Amino acid sequence: MSVPVLTFFNNKGGVGKTSLVYHIAWMLSELNVRVLAVDLDPQANLTAAFLEEDELADLWDRTDTTTSDTISRCFQPLTKVGDLADKPQLKQINGRLSLLPGDLSLSGFEELLSVEWPNCLGDQNLFRPFRVVTAFWQVVQAAARQCSAAIVLLDVGPSLGAINRSALIATDALVIPLGADLFSVQGLRNLGPTLLRWRADWARRRENWGEPEFELPVGAMQPLGYVVQQHSVRLGRPVRAYDRWVQRIPGEYLRSVLKQSGTGAPTPEVDPNRIATMKHYRSLIALGQDARKPIFELSTADGALGSHFVAARAARTDFAALTEEILRRLRQAGHTVPRQAVS
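Request: output the structure for the sequence above.
Response:
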């Protein structure tokens, strides 16, 4: 049985996607859930959030490409005559949180993924094209088994290219981070149809290989809902400029992502598709980056003084509630994830 893969995806950048993955991964580990975080963004920001600069330099400057210590190096043998690395080398962040690092060379595989995608509809030699387009899923599942993860979190870049298509093929469920702005609302209009097309196109390819020689991902890409990052708050409510766009999100999500009528959409406060509205936390993020900690772990020794310390404690409550709600939605969608703390 495969480990459920949850991807945080939006083709618009600047919506706090990587920060969400980072903090939810940490929170899952604090809830005693074994989690694997995977960096499939060619910019590798999630990897940079977890690892110290010296460790990053050692990892990325390495000239030995036969190692399997990044997602790109696990993929590399497929570009020649080899196969995927079956034992990825993971970074152990804590006892329950593991990282499969990314690196900047990942973008070099975009062309190969594009070339092999149509070949999956051929009538012969299907092993290689399917091995290539499902490479991320194969590596992620091998890594998840290796660290006994109960759930995998994928961070991907803000694009609708071949890398993200293969990442979404590997995806069981999806969370869409949004900003409260015009660009996020417009972005949903691109994102929804793309997900629908990728899901249908992958189903056709699976059907084309009637007797696959290895296990293939389902590629369900099931949306669990959206998370809004609240950039500006006044007296606990979004300022008017942001509230204007927040009010449009429920209807646009219904129309573009779920392909339902957006007429009579609920308000954001009671929208069942809204997982949460998260504060921006502003300067706390910078403190967390400097300390290589999630913001809810910041202490006075890290510079979280006065109101910063209070905000860090509030962040723990917010991220715990968000993580529990995501787990609840995953279970509701039929995925096997822990209901309570496990060792």
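Residues 170 and 217 are 6 Å apart (CA to CA).
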